[in-house]
Design a protein that fits this description.
The complex is a heterodimer of chains A (297) and B (531). With 297 residues, chain A is α/β, with parallel strands linked by helices. In chain A, strand 1 and strand 2 form a beta hairpin. Chain B is mostly helical and 531 residues long. Helix content of chain B is 75%, strand content 0%. The chains are: A alpha/beta (297), B mainly alpha (531). Chains A and B meet through helix 2 and helix 3 of A and helix 14 and helix 18 of B.
């Protein structure tokens, strides 16, 4: 079952091409990471999914309907947290949460109280006096307190402190257990790593990678740091090695997955005293795509 | 002096950002007195023509309330009388709006914070805004002086006019500076600043109409006429307004150095933790956002209407100096006829105020969209049509509320003077609400602009200004009839309610319905713009 399915989406603003054939598929019940650098088209895609913008070409379907034509019916079944939360200056946070909930068709008051408590949010402050992080919490509580099928979160943790980020992760994991579908746009890679079942990576309006984290890691390199007894200077003849640094008996490099075995065999011949290896973080994966796909560099 | 560091950079920034706005204000405000004087030179070339005009309007309290007293019989003096007060109000409006736009609005948007972290002193933004606005006022004054002198008017008077305009802009720039410190939202600051301007206008009007000099002296707008350009200038009045501008400016700086960035002097109270049960739909939200503005504008219009109603009884005195004309008019319908004309005129003025309210309220749609708050509402199950309708409801009905209120208040106050409250309320109400179709054309045009070309909504204000010029000056300047007919207000501004035929009203309402329909269908089709 697919909750969101987008194919070959194109959207231009004047001369700028924001989306250039974007694809995105989110299955029901999964937490899907929507990853890309600033200005890559994440927010534009989300705004098309919400029926706020209309695509120039391509198709988008959301919860089995057309995001533009069936906007109001679909919006009853989803909740949205924008990346840039803007509140009415004279309405209190509590009023905004209730109002948005009611406009959506109701919210769970008990869940709201629990969330206010967990996010440590004072609902009596006026919109204009909240900090960025607290405005984001208002939008998060408003979205999470309504029991909808789909949550669309656009960089929801940008202003949250680490403690609140941890709380956010717990809440999203609970939503996953409740079989809610979540589209989480982010450039915070650790967040996506910790939360998401599957990830789509986009850049310059195009999807460049999509799959589970395991599938994506498969494409990438492992980092190795080791201290050996022998002389490691011959390591550079191995294929698939990158960023090799040799400092006397200490050596560090990155190795492509298919050459990992050969590299380890070579290392053990030199006599390994200590070895640290870590799987690629999304950070590295991301940087690699970022570099490799730059068209003219 | 460290508090002022960076002022010159900010000056350049404001000049770059607001050059279009500044240029429009300067040309419009300098142009109005010059074209008026030019027209008067032709219209009232002879001494006889001028003294007739003065005999008709000179000592009439009703027209004193509207335009101020006449101090002299030269072309210059008549120009000051006809356009000086309106010009002062517009200059004050420019000053208040531009200062708040470049101080409090910047702060509210967070851009000021971005600058505050660079080498920009704490007083630099306020100083830059005040300097730009005062320089604009000075430019307007200079252009007026040169323009009027070039028309052959007496130089001393032209200089007085220009200097008076310059000091008026300085006073209201300082008022805007204070308003920007008091509240922490740009909208509320504008409310305070424009409210102060309205109060100054009403004090002046009441003082001039009831011949209570002290009231007129309380009002910075009164100072302009009391400077008496072209009628034996009292130059020391310039000293008074300069001193008051400096004093108010000092208060603004004082307040600015006492408060935190982003905060106002007035405290922000906590709100309820839960929304009231009634806050559940787009209309309830719009009411919540619009109610204080509706109340403020209604109070202003009510005060103005009460003033006009009070002085209406004196209208009959117009023809005191001309018994034959009075007889002719009496044969045509008597005093009622005269007050009809008067109320039709004041109703037209109030209709422009209600029109300004209506445009502002309709443009709330744009503000909500640009502020990304529309997005939050439209991502719920609220349709675009309902959201748009919720705000337009207040734009249309709010204007109706104001015109009904204006009619009732003018009728009641006039009726109280002639012992016929109920009858006059009904009569003046009729004259007042006949303006509504014309106001609604403005509202609907604003909505259509919003739907079709949201970036061009400023055109709505240009329309209002254009209709104001056509209505107030069109006949003086002898514009051709087809041009005058472009203003919807010209079709409802005949002298009595009974003369209004149904056809123009029906046409205006047809235009309203067409433009409103167009606005909805265009908005449903277009992308929401990101800020």
């Amino acid at each position: 079952m697919s909750t969101i399915s987008v194919s070959n989406l194109v959207k231009s603003f004047g001369h700028t091409k924001a989306l250039d054939g974007l694809n995105l598929a989110v299955s029901t019940g999964e937490v899907h990471g929507f990853l890309g650098p600033n200005g890559s088209g994440k927010t534009t895609t989300i705004r098309i999914l919400l029926g706020l913008l209309r695509q120039d070409a391509g198709t988008a379907s959301l919860l089995g309907g057309d995001p533009w034509e069936d906007a109001t019916e679909l919006h009853r079944r989803l909740a949205y947290v924008p990346g840039d939360v803007s509140l009415w200056p004279d309405l209190s946070g509590g009023e905004v949460i209730d109002l948005l909930g009611r406009l959506r068709g109701g919210l769970d008051p008990k869940k709201k109280e629990r969330l206010l408590d967990r996010f440590d949010l004072d609902p009596t402050k006026k919109g204009r006096t909240y900090s960025k992080g607290n405005r984001q919490k208002v939008a998060l509580v408003a979205a999470l307190a309504s029991n909808v099928e789909l949550l669309i979160l656009d960089e929801p943790t940008g202003g949250l402190d680490p403690l609140m980020e941890a709380e956010f992760r717990m809440v999203i994991n609970e939503e996953r257990s409740a079989e809610r579908t979540v589209l989480l746009s982010s450039h915070v890679l650790s967040e996506v790593e910790a939360l998401c079942d599957r990830v789509s990576i986009i850049r310059e309006g195009r999807t460049i990678e999509s799959g589970t984290l395991t599938q994506l890691r498969h494409l990438t390199r492992t980092s190795i740091e080791a201290e050996v007894s022998g002389n490691p200077s011959d390591l550079h003849i191995l294929s698939g090695l990158h960023a090799l640094q040799v400092d006397d008996h200490r050596v560090s490099f990155e190795v492509d997955a298919e050459h990992l075995g050969a590299a380890l065999a070579q290392l053990s011949q030199l006599g390994v005293n200590s070895l640290v290896s870590h799987p690629p973080t999304l950070e590295e994966l991301f940087l690699r795509h970022y570099r490799q796909d730059s068209p003219k560099s | 002096m460290r508090a002022f560091a960076g002022t010159s950079q900010l000056l350049r920034l404001i000049l770059k950002r607001d050059r279009g706005r500044l240029l429009s204000w300067i040309l419009a405000l300098a142009g109005i007195p010059i074209v008026t004087a030019n027209a008067f030179i032709e219209l009232y070339a002879t001494e006889t023509a001028r003294s007739e005009l003065i005999a008709t309007f000179g000592s009439n309290p009703a027209y004193s309330a509207l335009l101020g007293p006449i101090y002299g019989s030269t072309i210059g003096a008549l120009t000051v009388w006809r356009i000086g007060v309106i010009g002062s109000v517009l200059i004050g409006l420019m000053a208040v709006l531009l200062v708040i736009r470049n101080t409090r609005d910047e702060e509210e948007s967070g851009r000021r914070e971005l600058l505050g972290a660079t080498v920009v002193g704490r007083h630099a933004p306020l100083t830059a805004a005040l300097v730009v606005v005062m320089a604009a006022g000075l430019n307007i004054g200079l252009l007026i002086t040169v323009g009027l002198a070039a028309l052959g008017l007496e130089f001393g008077g032209a200089l007085g006019y220009g200097a008076g305009v310059g000091t008026t802009s300085a006073v209201f720039a300082a008022v805007g500076g204070i308003a920007a410190q008091l509240t922490n939202g740009g909208g509320a600051a504008r409310g305070v600043g424009v409210g102060a301007l309205g109060l100054a206008f009403i004090l002046r009007a009441a003082g001039d109409a009831m011949e209570i000099e002290a009231l007129g002296w309380l009002s910075p707008i009164g100072w302009f006429t009391r400077l008496r350009p072209f009628s034996g200038e009292r130059w020391w009045v310039l000293g008074l307004s300069t001193a008051v501008a400096a004093g108010l400016g000092a208060i603004a700086y004082r307040l600015a150095s006492r408060r935190d960035l982003g905060a106002g002097v007035l405290p922000v109270r906590a709100g309820p933790a839960n929304a009231a049960p009634g806050l559940r739909g787009p209309v309830a939200l719009a009411w919540r956002l619009q109610r204080s503005s509706l109340l403020g504008w209604s109070v202003g219009i009510g005060l103005l209407a009460a003033l006009y109603g009070t002085v209406a009884d004196d209208v009959g005195e117009i023809f005191g100096g001309n018994p034959q004309l009075a007889e002719v008019l009496a044969a045509l319908g008597g005093t009622d006829r005269l007050t009809d004309t008067f109320f039709s005129f004041t109703g037209g003025v109030l209709a422009l105020v209600a029109g300004a309210y209506s445009i502002r309220t309709a443009l709330r749609l744009r503000a909500e969209e640009e502020g990304l708050r529309a997005e939050a509402v439209l991502a719920t199950s609220t349709t675009r049509g309902r959201w748009m309708a919720s705000h337009l409801l207040f734009a249309f009905l709010g204007a109706a509320v104001m015109m009904v209120l204006a009619g009732l208040v003018m009728g009641a106050t006039y009726g109280a003077a002639i012992d016929d409250v109920a009858g006059q309320m009904a009569r003046v109400l009729g004259i007042s609400i006949i303006q509504l179709p014309a106001i609604w054309v403005l509202t609907a045009a604003t909505a259509a602009l919003y739907g079709l070309a949201p970036r061009a909504t400023v055109v709505a204000w240009a329309l209002l200004l254009g209709f104001l010029v056509l209505g107030q000056l069109g006949q003086i300047l002898r514009f051709p009839q087809w041009l005058l007919n472009l203003s919807p207000f010209s079709h409802v501004a005949t002298s009595t309610a009974s003369e209004i035929s149904a056809v123009p009203i029906a046409v205006l309402l047809g235009v309203v319905i067409f433009l409103t329909g167009l606005s909805f269908s265009a908005f449903r089709r277009r992308d929401l713009t990101a800020a």
